[in-house]
Amino acid sequence: MTTAALNDRNVGEIAAQLPGATSVFRRFGIDFCCHGDISLTQAAAERGLDIAELETALQALDPKAAPEAPQETDALISHIQTRYHDVHRQQIPELIELSRKVEAVHAGHANAPEGLADVLQQIMAELETHMHKEEQEIFPAMRRKAADPLATPISELRHDHDAHGVFLEQVGKITDDYTLPGDACRSWEALYAGAAQLKEDLMEHIHLENNVLFPRFETGATA
């Protein structure tokens, strides 16, 4: 990709088509999943980033490298379910339990993540409804390449993803972007490490659906 081509393309498109781009975007703090429909130039401007530095990092990637997830539709759906749906169902309840412990033990601490467990509980509830709909209705329709249009239900799923992004923003605010105080105990350390991993996993999950899987069924071009 030339610099001009990068400038003209949406962040989500770059993330979907250039292996390793999502890691670069995470490093620069660019939202490539829920808000991937803006140009690279606009994304850099909104973050106050040096566009040249961002372009250099992207240009250093190998466009011929192996994709980070399966490309064939059935395999991609299976990957999303096992790598993300199954993992979320394990990791979030553990984080909720750990958060309640940290909030109770460190109640009154100036940096205590007050309210984090409740936000995580909301994330789990919203995600479970979302994932169940995908697993029971949307993914089977995609696998059998159903004739019925999927644009409307996909639009609803994209709306869900936006809500998930808002919850992640709340987690970031409560944890001061996962910044530990100097006297944090090991449970606190584990909580923030797990919450940061959840953010990374959920962003990758949303990216694969928003930017790779869903467009195939909004345009009618399946793989």
From TrEMBL:
Subcellular location: Cytoplasm
Pfam family, one: ScdA_N
Domain of life: Bacteria
Domain Hemerythrin-like per the UniProt entry, residue ranges: 78-216
InterPro entries: Hemerythrin-like, RIC_family
Signal peptide: none
Record's keyword terms, sorted: Cytoplasm, Iron, Metal-binding
Entry protein name: Iron-sulfur cluster repair di-iron protein
Source organism: Hoeflea algicola
Name of the gene encoding the protein in the UniProt record: ric
